[in-house]
Amino acid sequence: MRFVLALLSIVIISIQKASSATLDLGLTKLAWSAGPDTPQIAVALSQNIWTSRGLTVQPINVATGREALEALIGGQVDFAAMTEFPVVVGAMQQKQFRVIAEISRYRGNRVIGTPAMTSLKSLQNHKIGTTLGTNVNYQSDTVLQNAGVTATTVNAAPSDLVPALARGDIDAAFVFPSFFPLAKKILGDRYREIRTPDYVTTFLIIATTDMVEKHPDRVKAFLQGLLAANESVKRGGSG
After folding, report:
1. Phi, psi of 21 (to 5 degrees)
2. Which one, of 147, 148, 150, lies nearest residue 125 by Cα?
3. pLDDT of 46-71, one tens digit each?
4. Are residues 102 and 207 in the same domain?
5. Does residue 16 have a pLDDT over 50?
6. Domain span at residue 114?
């Protein structure tokens, strides 16, 4: 996995410098699904990096990027972390938000299954679990199409996919990376995986238009915190 953090021109705003010790930028809320693909957020929270910059960030746990986008559009949160898929969908629907950073590119995607899954071709005409409307849905469609495989898509919530696989209700599943350890634990020696290195997930940070336009100091502190956390991740810091 290669981590990157690119600040976009939209947030290059002229702000007078002040000592972070004297700042109190208030509370902001971040919609986020914890996982190995966005470690900077976990580090920033565990090491109080944002707090040291006068910004209190309250993480709001969501199951999918789609839910994160909905929370941000609905005004429940100020920032949200998600893959490029819901961002593109939101933009096509002309939703109002701003992309302010790219924080990672995850190259560890895979399809998980049982011993019956010996290759992508072995999934032909089988039942494949995924969560519709999310990037893993797009991943499954892309990977299977590139492999020339036709399969039946079974929709399930992210937390239901591994149990469905264990029961035999589905033959394989495309799940979020946070569920890989659970799958290995539940399936044991029955666990199988096929890496899909050609599918790279890009993770973005988006913000409400109101946050960017009316609270540039908070946006700056938030991004500075991510930059500091990114350096900690590079050094191997886990919080």
Report:
1. -70, -25
2. 150
3. 999 999 999 999 999 999 999 999 99
4. yes
5. no
6. 110-195
**Same-domain status, 207 and 159:** no
Which are the contacts of 55, defined by CB distance < 8 A and separation ≥ 6? 23, 25, 26, 28, 218, 221, 222, 225
pLDDT for residue 15 is more than 70: no
Which of 28, 10, 4, 211 has the alpha carbon at shortest distance from 99?
Answer: 10
For residue 88, give both structure tokens: 């593109």
CA nearest neighbour of 137 among 164, 156, 163? 156
Write down the pLDDT at residue 42. 94
Q: Are strands 127-130 and 79-83 parallel, antiparallel or unpaired?
A: unpaired
Q: Are residues 55 and 25 in contact, defined by beta-carbon separation less than 8 angstroms?
A: yes
What pTM does this model have?
0.81
139 lies in the same domain as 209: no
Distances (CA, A) of 123 to 29, 46, 116, 142, 227: 41, 41, 9, 14, 41
Q: Which pLDDT value is given to residue 237?
A: 57
DSSP state of 118: -
- Please indicate, yes or no, if residue 191 is contained in any of the structural domains: yes
Same domain, 212 and 190: no
First to last CA, the chain: 19
- On whether both 83 and 134 belong to a single domain, the answer is no
Number of folded domains in the chain?
2
